[in-house]
Amino acid sequence: xxxxxxxxxxxxxxxHRRQDWLxxxxxxxxxxxxxxxxxxxxxxxxxxxxxxxxxxxxxxxxGTRFARFPGIGEPRNIFEKLDDCSVIQQLGRMTPNISLxxxxxxxxxxxxxxxxxxxxxLGFDAMNSNTFQDQANQGLSYKYGSLTHTRAEVRQLAIxxxxxxxxxxxxxxxxxxxxxxxxxxxxPGQQHFSLAFGRYLExxxxxxxxxxxxxxxxxxxxxxxxxxxxxVIQDWGSSYLAxxxxxxxxxxxxxxxxxxxxxxxxxxxSRLAQFGKLGGFHFNDSKYGDDDLDSGSINPYQxxxxxxxxxxxxxxxxxxxxxxxxxxxxxxxxPIESLIYxxxxxxxxxxxxxxxxxxxxSQYQDNNDPLMAQATLKAAYNLDVEPILQMAxxxxxxxxxxxxxxxxxAYRQQCARxxxxxxxxxxxxxx
Amino acid sequence: xxxxxxxxxxxxxxxHRRQDWLxxxxxxxxxxxxxxxxxxxxxxxxxxxxxxxxxxxxxxxxGTRFARFPGIGEPRNIFEKLDDCSVIQQLGRMTPNISLxxxxxxxxxxxxxxxxxxxxxLGFDAMNSNTFQDQANQGLSYKYGSLTHTRAEVRQLAIxxxxxxxxxxxxxxxxxxxxxxxxxxxxPGQQHFSLAFGRYLExxxxxxxxxxxxxxxxxxxxxxxxxxxxxVIQDWGSSYLAxxxxxxxxxxxxxxxxxxxxxxxxxxxSRLAQFGKLGGFHFNDSKYGDDDLDSGSINPYQxxxxxxxxxxxxxxxxxxxxxxxxxxxxxxxxPIESLIYxxxxxxxxxxxxxxxxxxxxSQYQDNNDPLMAQATLKAAYNLDVEPILQMAxxxxxxxxxxxxxxxxxAYRQQCARxxxxxxxxxxxxxx
Amino acid sequence: xxxxxxxxxxxxxxxHRRQDWLxxxxxxxxxxxxxxxxxxxxxxxxxxxxxxxxxxxxxxxxGTRFARFPGIGEPRNIFEKLDDCSVIQQLGRMTPNISLxxxxxxxxxxxxxxxxxxxxxLGFDAMNSNTFQDQANQGLSYKYGSLTHTRAEVRQLAIxxxxxxxxxxxxxxxxxxxxxxxxxxxxPGQQHFSLAFGRYLExxxxxxxxxxxxxxxxxxxxxxxxxxxxxVIQDWGSSYLAxxxxxxxxxxxxxxxxxxxxxxxxxxxSRLAQFGKLGGFHFNDSKYGDDDLDSGSINPYQxxxxxxxxxxxxxxxxxxxxxxxxxxxxxxxxPIESLIYxxxxxxxxxxxxxxxxxxxxSQYQDNNDPLMAQATLKAAYNLDVEPILQMAxxxxxxxxxxxxxxxxxAYRQQCARxxxxxxxxxxxxxx
Amino acid sequence: xxxxxxxxxxxxxxxHRRQDWLxxxxxxxxxxxxxxxxxxxxxxxxxxxxxxxxxxxxxxxxGTRFARFPGIGEPRNIFEKLDDCSVIQQLGRMTPNISLxxxxxxxxxxxxxxxxxxxxxLGFDAMNSNTFQDQANQGLSYKYGSLTHTRAEVRQLAIxxxxxxxxxxxxxxxxxxxxxxxxxxxxPGQQHFSLAFGRYLExxxxxxxxxxxxxxxxxxxxxxxxxxxxxVIQDWGSSYLAxxxxxxxxxxxxxxxxxxxxxxxxxxxSRLAQFGKLGGFHFNDSKYGDDDLDSGSINPYQxxxxxxxxxxxxxxxxxxxxxxxxxxxxxxxxPIESLIYxxxxxxxxxxxxxxxxxxxxSQYQDNNDPLMAQATLKAAYNLDVEPILQMAxxxxxxxxxxxxxxxxxAYRQQCARxxxxxxxxxxxxxx
Lengths: 431, 431, 431, 431
What we know:
Chains A, B, C, D: InterPro entries: L-rhamnose_isomerase, L_rhamnose_iso, Xyl_isomerase-like_sf. Four copies of one chain form a homotetramer. Chain A has helices at residues 8-35, 40-49, 78-92, 110-119, 152-172, 193-209, 236-246, 265-274, 300-316, 335-354, 358-366, 370-381, 386-395, 402-409, 411-418, and strands spanning 54-55, 97-99, 123-124, 127-128, 176-179, 184-185, 216-220, 230-231, 250-255, 278-283, 323-326. By secondary structure, chain A is an alpha/beta fold. The first copy, chain A, has one domain: TIM Barrel. Chain B binds chain C through residues 63-67, 69, 132-134, 141-144, 182, 185-188, 190, 223-226, 228-229, 261, 286-289, 291-294, 297-298, 331-333, 429-430, and chain C through 63-67, 69, 132-134, 141-144, 182, 185-188, 190, 223-226, 228-229, 261, 286-289, 291-294, 297-298, 331-333, 429-430.
């Protein structure tokens, strides 16, 4: 039986207060959708299938190079992180899997960790390696690169770490390795572009050799930061080439914040899928760069357009199943609240994308009727699908209003008492 | 009595078919809003007060420097443009005023033009001067600048043109002059920055002297294009300085597409209003630059955030009344359809901004509760306010579904028969 | 014998006045380079091998969607354009080949055109097709796409046009076809991304079938404009995929202005070359977008960094021989002057790249000494190589100071007398 | 007598080896400049007057939010930082003043610190306050703002800190306070724009009251980071308004990395100077955002264009004397080397700007001859002024090749022995 951190009685009480209005709104929306021959219960059921992984480090307060302002009651280790994740899952019902970051979350005993997670109703999503920081007693340094370092012994250290992460993930039940490196340069001339890329391909190939046959290897590109002149895997083009060269189960991971200004990300999603290389997502939002803001908080229509592609792709390729994760830096909010809220925003975008009249859209596209094509997207986007989100959660045992319920539970205050503040908490880095 | 281009019978028939569902949706939304103590009829009435001017040139098909692909039945003169504008107003009921562009729309007889407009139920909004193109037989050229040209005689020509536009506007009942210039440079070194800005201030001052006491002069800034290295009024900072130096009724006009990538436009709106210099808007949307795409088609949340500021400002300053205009380039759609649809998108953003719970928002801001502050904005944004838009239109005599009604009217096909295609139609330039 | 538009006597006189100083500067630089064991005459000879094609349309004054301000004496047809190009080549000695644009430059008699060019000492570089504009009596329209249009007959029209351009190029002695399309969309939803890309691949494949075995097909990507929401070949990633799918001699063309803000273009150059797909360049410069400013006028160090890659690539692959062309819009200058000056800027970047101490650079890279690696680039960049440019020109029969010599020749004034101004000159569009 | 960290004998030896070539190059350049009637000794003397402050924190290795990779022998306190700064000054001769950051550099005894600096031949430039981090035992937190916090007691804490920094600076002989705050928001709705700006004006006004009559107060704007949706002083427009409202000696500080993509910074420089509000600079370079890369390492022409404005302004206003500082994050280089090299790059830009033929430029501008106007700038920019930099240093007692001399001194290795590595060194933050 699953251990719960929030009283199920409290959830029921909170839901009870909101249930009548939900029924009323859900019914009104059902009737409206019915006019378009859409069955709301089918959509609700589809919404319930969407799962987005939580990054273990996301439940700690994030920071910038300038400062980190910790909140109260922050988790001090991977077990407390799982506790917090379980609260998010209990209330929101769409985040049952956790993405670990090694060495930040490296357990002494993987079996113990797995059992702890299972008791909380949690499993493990993609594993994340870390060769962008030096670990104590590591000997060699990643200051000038890891998988692409000019020295073979540094590359070997980074390769071995990735293989170790795979092994650990295998014990935990994960099915994917996400590789993001900070390798690049800060000065023109510092790095030889093609030699560095060649070394990347060689290193990635060695890691791929260690990949279990039912695993995926996900390559994450990023335009800049921590390197500020060039990055080895800087964009989807380089990521595609690397995935293509590395192997069939090597695919590209799209982080919404890792692109040049103005870039049409939904088109990149389409391109990668068309060539069989779309592997997963890191959801967040941004206004200026890799801001790691909460998903949908800046440009919710873009998030919808991304899901519009995903639903379209899925329609043509039922086996399509990318890895989804929230990757946000919660600098000014309670991380649990941000993750609950953001997961729902992702689900909202998905539901709206499900409601697009694709037959009509397709006809408008074929007939070059751009106004009605976009109006078809907007017709779905402008709907208020909140009742579906609420109903999906309630039916799954979650909270109609998960933020209110969380606050009512005083979980954070309880943590504050049990977890003394630690200004140098591990795991504050954000990928 | 107003001349109508679309049969009022048709509008009624079309509305009749949609009225039951509208009533149902409107009622459901009314009940939902009632829970927050919001009276839907009050909101509907407020929505009906929003007016957005149509640019005369907007009813022609736009183009790029590469090509223009004209549509059928395009208007060939200002009278036909007014005809098209009247269709937009008849169906959408929020665009009764037209913004003229001189010399494109220069009438032989202003009185005749005014009467023609009045018969269509139309009036005139801000006047636009044009010193970014050379006119036939103009003598001097604006190739190297107009209001900031190094030669005094060219500046005088440009100043005189602006004064002439004011005089014409006075006869037509306009109350504002919008000044946008293409002056700037394509090469470092081409123009002396501070001398050019000094010349601008001097020229603007002379135009201001000719401004009637109940007029506003609106300065429009633009980061680049047609000048590609520097622009004299490049951003809101320069626009503010120029407006401040020029006079009290000289204010800044914000075109949503005229900013550097990533810039927070809603904050600029706030700054200009706080210092008494927010004069008006050119609504459109953009993904890459000054794309002049349809309002709300790319980032509808940004449009909402702009109106969130405007509603807030208006709450504190009831006399606040900026000039609103759609400024879009309709390259691939029927311009009439785009203008109807875009005006509604602007109205949608305004209605959602009206629904923001400002008391709650203010408390969350004061208490530094960013999650709930943003959730308060999103609560309003996520509502489906389409029933309010439809009801506002229907009650004002417009169409519940104006695009469908327009297509049913076959107005464009009728124009196609009456207006032979002219590949070099005037007025295809877009500010 | 080559027909010359500028008196060779004048060139000699002009050079004579400058020769002493040139010898003095050349000698001083020679001694300085000698310290690094670089022989200046070898570098000068290498500089003389660089050839950059002139676009036929570049000798006309460019414009923007707002206006075009023609200069005096503009060429009225392809023959006069060739005359102007010959002046550029005569004075600058690095632009003997012309890139034609069809249909703008379509000759009645290709043989006559070829002979006319040969008499001027000119040949033909890559041919450019045009499916981004509708031609009179074309029947079908490219308003909604060309090679990717949803209707097969429009695609066939565009394919046939490209094949016709190849055939014409074959008669003229060209060896490449450059394909740039304006296809894309202005609204989310207007175009189905993957279906459109699929149609592109199919169309490109058909064109490739018609390609002579000693030709290259160059695909030019562009992020936006004329389409403002999405472009079918939007970036190097899509261009690579298309070139890869199309065929071995299908390669990517990099226009320096066709990228998202901040993108590291020199790294794209490296990636494409590493995977055998770098086919050519359109040189220009930009501050904001696809500004088509004169090469090196905004960021000359970037141009140097691009050539730093090219020289490095050439060092490893002697057969590497991309197609180089200037692609600029001369809106405010005499196009002949801009082309002379820009070609020299390209040559300047090449010469500086030749002077990079690659052995030292390589060691600094291997040893992770970023400061000295960048200092090695800067050491070459900071040199004043003007004497090499001047000597290279003089030795080849050109002018030490080609702009001064051009102005002294009064060629433009002569053209003004012979070519009455035409405000609607063809060929003002810029790719 | 000044204490020196590098043996003066070593410097003389190193210079001796390079002196002949320097004389030769200097002489060749002198003759070349003489043709334009420029006296190289005058320019050399002017170059020697340029002073750029060193930030105390700049001598520590910087980092990103992901990691910091410390170098060996890093300074552990303000005294060791001054030691390092003295090395930079000894070799480069243009950085005699240090900009402190409080509380990072807060001395127990200001007099002792002042004497220590004086013994090293160093003085103090602008003081920097810090309200973007919480200090231990601070009680209240800046998590949600400092000078603009919604709670008055937090604002008072921040104001009091700034006043304390002024008092400390007064004791040290500083003449300016630089105020940069991280205040802003991460979510739409989090902060009320105009209320926050109003609070800023009030707080800044209180600080200004405490400003000595011969001091300047410098406001530094920044578009984003650490706040990622909005920043209170986000651009030069807001900075200007704040400086204008605050007082006559309150001016704007321009950090080259704190702008939106593509923005024309040299024009901002001109605008602020024209309206009497240009107070100072933070020099660095960037490719993507606030990258804090070494000055001139990415776009040296832009740095030249900035100095082109500064020299022009100075020509018209001899009293013009902004505060110059290097503000860079040295993540992959020895900070001492980066600061020596960058200071020289700033000087190089200044020297080239001095060499612009302003009479000719002005005529080309007046006559609208953009090609020759830009060619006039390029003529100066393309010169190799390295001999002037070297001569200016040598004549002032510095090193002809300061990097080589520094490496020969083995100063860093000596520090490594005397200063054990501390992975959590203070002062790694970068403004």
